[in-house]
Amino acid sequence: MSWVRVGDAALWKYRRGRQVDVGGVKVAVFRDGDRYVAVSDTCPHMGASLADGRLDDGKIQCSWHEWRYDVATGQCPLREWAKVRVYEVERRGDGVWVRSE
Asked: N or C end of the chain: which has fewer CB within 10 A?
């Protein structure tokens, strides 16, 4: 496992996501104040980019049909089968880093 720098921290807006590439995998990274969270970018419902959604109350909401995913577990609270992968993410100095496989 290694860490990948995915961009300057200044690129992220509060509670908004950005799609980044982590070892050939699309990942959605969101900023929540001084904390950053990351999940796999594809919504299991219909394939929308979760990076286009928004972060609210510890959940990422998909922009297409408003399905939500917990940032700690990746689980959709209303649909047991729907889950996204959660990635470790850190801010280091001016950069945002995501841990890859």
From this structure: N
- pLDDT number for residue 1: 78
Q: What is the pLDDT of residues 10-43, one digit of tens each?
A: 999 999 999 999 999 999 999 998 899 999 999 9
Joined tokens for residue 5: 């720098």
Which domains are delineated in the chain? 2-100 (2.102.10.10)
Which phi and psi (to 5°) does residue 92 adopt?
Answer: -125, 110
Whole-model pTM: value is 0.94
- CA distances, 74 to each of 8, 38, 39 (Å): 25, 10, 7
Rg from Cα positions in the chain: 12
Q: What is the DSSP string of the chain?
A: -EEEEEEEGGGPPBTBEEEEEETTEEEEEEEETTEEEEEESB-TTT--BGGGSEEETTEEE-TTT--EEETTT-B-TT-TT-B--EE-EEEETTEEEEEE-
